[in-house]
Write a structure and sequence with these properties.
- The protein is built from 8 helices and 12 strands.
- By secondary structure, the chain is α+β, with helices and mostly antiparallel strands.
- Helix 5 crosses helix 6 and helix 5 packs across helix 8.
């Protein structure tokens, strides 16, 4: 049975190449300019195509909610037409860049999460805290949230082709016969992962949970959701605590997102890892550790 793939959200950044007065945007879409000090832009909701667009006076826009790249481009065209009807003259064609494609997957067969956690690398699985397994793929650079019933959520892809490539690799990793058991490094070969790199991996896994959530960060519906880390050095926890909230539990540490970082993630067009690297770089020297 072929894996079912359903694209549920496409996030794109748009650059109009010029400043856009928010007053004109408000008039074009009948949006009152209230509470401008709380948010430096306007939220434009379109019904056809059904999208949410965050427009800033700098000429940047974030489009989210579409189920296809074509839907994103139709939304951008509709915004452009509305603005031009209100006298906003755009000098050129808006630059559209797909930042994230979120897909719902159904493999059609059950997944042995415990076996997958032991045989795959870059996984986080703690069934006592959360029933899913988080698996990070290197190529394409994506994160999959896997469930035992055979369903999954994939995020981080930049196109439908990357989604399909990630699905093929997931099928091969999860269902091929004779998977090799993961073994610990013997001290030879690749150098050990630094504390900062390990902290970045933990932060990626933690905030990938927020990418799956479509609710408002102001009133988080999952305040106790996080990732479990069995072992972590003091230095790793120090770096992790800069952007998240690690808490000591009986067998390890439980890392939960910080609301202010979740809000930044929600309103940013940056890739999750790029955003975390940038935020960490403001406090530590990432270049020396070759993380940037």
């Amino acid at each position: 049975m072929a894996t079912s793939i359903k694209i549920c959200n496409v996030v794109a950044s748009v650059d109009f190449g010029q400043r856009i007065p928010l007053r004109n945007v408000g008039k074009a879409f009948s949006i009152p300019l209230t509470r401008r000090n709380r948010f430096p832009g306007l939220v434009v909701r379109l019904q056809k195509p059904k999208t949410v667009n965050l427009i800033f006076s700098t000429g940047k826009m974030i489009c989210t909610g579409s189920s296809s790249e074509q839907g994103v481009r139709r939304a951008v065209k509709k915004v452009v037409d509305k603005l031009e009807n209100r006298g906003v003259k755009l000098r050129g064609k808006p630059q559209v860049k797909i930042q994230n494609v979120v897909a719902l997957l159904d493999f059609g067969k059950k997944i042995n999460l415990e076996k997958a956690a032991k045989s795959l690398t870059k996984t986080i699985y703690e069934p006592e805290q959360f029933p899913g397994l988080i698996y990070q793929l290197d190529q394409p650079k994506t994160v999959a949230l896997l469930f035992s019933n055979g369903k999954a959520v994939l995020t981080g892809a930049r196109s439908k082709r990357e989604v399909e490539e990630a699905v093929r690799k997931l099928e091969k990793a999860l269902f091929r016969k004779g998977r090799r058991r993961r073994v610990k490094a013997s001290g030879r070969g690749e150098p050990p992962v630094s504390s900062l790199q390990r902290a970045l991996e933990i932060l990626e896994a933690t905030y990938s949970l927020c990418e799956f959530c479509g609710s408002s960060c102001e009133v988080c519906p999952y305040p106790n959701l996080g990732v479990y880390v069995e072992k972590a050095s003091e230095e790793t926890l120090k770096y992790t605590s800069l952007l998240a909230s690690p808490e000591k539990c009986r067998k390890g540490f439980y890392v939960k997102p910080k609301r202010e970082i979740s809000l930044l993630l929600r309103n940013s067009a940056e890739d999750l890892r790029d955003l975390l690297v940038r935020l960490l770089s403001e406090q530590v020297n990432l270049e020396a550790l070759q993380l940037a």
